[in-house]
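Researcher: Let's do a round of design. I'm pasting the structure tokens now; please hold your answer until I've finished.
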């Protein structure tokens, strides 16, 4: 089956999807955005039709893939309409603005047997893939530390008087409007997905979050999780330190998994620079006493993810990545909010 796609949302993230779709040989028939000026260059590049109404894409029988790269607030209606129309769907993360909406989307995708992916592309970083391959060699997993420290400038003092991080009195900040939250949703969601990828679903967690007074987004989320594969210490942090991290560029994201036979450390580079900055994996093996470094040429994990998704769509199969990945992350986020609000540990109530 050849793939004909419509892309809904032509903002910042879309360029990585257009690149991935082009590399995967997908025909891009439609581009959609409320802002014509955002969509027009892509319409021209691919000879695609422009629309401001995503339903034009849904109603086109020639389209068999809808790629959802618009703001998170419209993921739910677009995904549901695309699933009902029998299309395959790739949706940017986070899947929805809350776990209940994510449940509805995934249940519908399962009911209709739609091919459905939430694009958590960090699973497709070569260093992450290699770490997953080496994971069984660690034996029993004892402890995992995982963090996403992102340099967002100094937001820890006075609230900015305007712009992306300003919450107007009684209103909504731009970061919340576009992405649904602060550092937990923006940066933390990816590494929650990696906790699920490496260790499985946590059963219980305790969380503490920092939301500055008067704002509607968080700057820090620290979580202790119990998983079937040991304890996880998780932290997502917005900070002003612009020369920290393994590449000294302010991006400090690290996964460290300790098992009885060794340790895996993944240092990942910034999400929007991965085609020029490479991630790094270090594997320490306790028997030999040696550490091996795996360095890869920089490569876009978006393109690798989209190639994987489109390969499955062409074969007409969901393949090894579950429809539930986006739901799983949204459910963890909802329990982190619950636990930090109650100042109590909570059992995770997985709905599906
Ligand atoms: N994977 C990652 O690392 C990553 C990074 C950044 C953003 N994201 C996700 O990508 C999505 C988009 O983020 P972005 O940074 O591109 O935001 P953006 O604001 O740059 O772009 C979003 C676009 O959606 C369009 N839009 C809004 N409502 C629409 C509608 N009803 N129909 C069609 N288009 C509509 C807007 O006009 C805008 O052009 C979000 O869900 C975000 O969480 C993922």
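Researcher: That's everything. Go ahead.
Model: Designed sequence:
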């Amino acid at each position: 089956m050849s793939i004909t796609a419509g892309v809904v949302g032509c903002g910042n993230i879309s360029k990585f999807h257009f690149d991935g779709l082009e590399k995967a040989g997908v025909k891009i028939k439609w581009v959609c955005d409320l802002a014509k000026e955002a969509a027009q260059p892509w319409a021209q590049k691919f000879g695609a039709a422009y629309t401001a109404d995503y339903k034009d894409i849904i109603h086109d029988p020639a389209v068999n893939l809808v790629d959802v790269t618009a703001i998170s607030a419209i993921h739910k209606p677009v995904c549901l309409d695309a699933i009902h129309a029998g299309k395959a769907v790739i949706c940017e993360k986070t899947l929805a603005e809350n776990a209940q909406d994510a449940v509805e989307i995934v249940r519908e995708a399962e009911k209709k047997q739609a091919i459905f992916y939430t694009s958590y592309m960090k699973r497709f970083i070569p260093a992450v893939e290699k770490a997953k391959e080496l994971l069984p060699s660690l034996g029993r997993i004892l402890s995992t530390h995982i963090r996403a420290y992102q340099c967002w400038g100094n937001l820890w003092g006075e609230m900015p008087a305007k712009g992306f991080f300003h919450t107007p009195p009684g209103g909504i900040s731009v970061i919340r409007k576009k992405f649904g939250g602060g550092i937990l949703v923006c940066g933390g969601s990816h590494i929650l997905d990696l906790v699920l990828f490496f260790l499985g679903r946590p059963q219980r967690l305790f969380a503490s979050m920092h939301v500055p007074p008067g704002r509607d987004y968080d700057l820090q989320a620290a979580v202790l999780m119990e998983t079937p594969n040991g304890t996880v210490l998780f932290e997502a942090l917005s900070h002003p330190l612009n020369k920290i991290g393994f590449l000294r560029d302010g991006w400090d994201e690290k996964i460290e998994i300790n098992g009885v036979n060794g340790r895996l450390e993944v240092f990942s580079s910034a999400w929007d620079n991965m085609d020029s900055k490479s991630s790094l994996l270090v594997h320490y093996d306790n028997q030999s006493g040696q550490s091996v470094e795996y360095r890869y040429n920089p490569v876009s994990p978006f393109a690798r993810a989209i190639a994987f998704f489109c390969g499955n769509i062409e074969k007409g199969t969901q393949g090894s990545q579950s429809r539930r990945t986006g739901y799983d992350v949204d459910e963890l986020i909802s329990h982190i909010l619950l636990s930090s609000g109650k100042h109590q540990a909570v059992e995770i109530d997985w709905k599906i």
